[in-house]
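Run log, item B.
One chain of 246 residues. Sequence copied directly from the ordering sheet:
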Amino acid sequence: MTPRDADTENRSDRIDRDTGRGLAHELVEKLKEQILAGKMVPGQKLPTEASLVAEYGVSRTVVREAISRLQAAGLVETFQGRGSFVLALPETEGFAVGAERVRTHRDVLDMIDFRIGVESETAGLAAERRTEMQLKAIERALRDLTRAGEKPSGAVEADFEFHRRIALASGNRFYADLLASLGPMMIMLPRTRLEAAYTVSDATHATRVSLEHENIYLAIARADGPAARAAMRLHLANSRARLQQD
């Protein structure tokens, strides 16, 4: 290999800083690509932090966040003092609830009951385990939700992203996988069954929901697990009450 070829190869390993998706995301994609392609096999140790910093031209903080995300995705496992190791690829088939299976008002209420059990604990774990970068991601999602205003489709996506970011911050990949399988439909379907008094265009309702999300974020920011669990439970219980028919 000539010096020019080597220089070209080194440049190809550098992170694309212009995608707008963040350096940690881009590094995750680089490492995930190698794992899925079999270039890093199960049981193989990942390069050290210092090696990844030098190879991809990013900071140690970015490397640690990327490895944390790979852990959450079930692709690597980290052992204190030993490093991170590639895991066998997870099964592609998993739990999923399609929108076609949530057909009735009863189904929607049951879905919220299910979410109360899952997401209350998810919020508590996020408060206890989240990194600063994950907290900032939750904050950005909250800000996007607040800005969504009267755009129903945008509000649904922003609302789902807020809950998804909390699941990722829990450090438990099963919570993250579960919410990903549910998708934005878990937000959209309840909204389609709200009475006119509870639509996103109603200022009082929008303010109330925004405050509920903000209380969840603030508890996570304070690293207060019990408060985060309570805030998430209250938010979802209020959502259920708004849907409940006499």
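Observations after the first pass:
- The longest strand covers residues 76-79.
- Residues 3-86 form a domain with the Arc Repressor Mutant, subunit A fold (CATH 1.10.10.10).
Flagged for discussion on Thursday.
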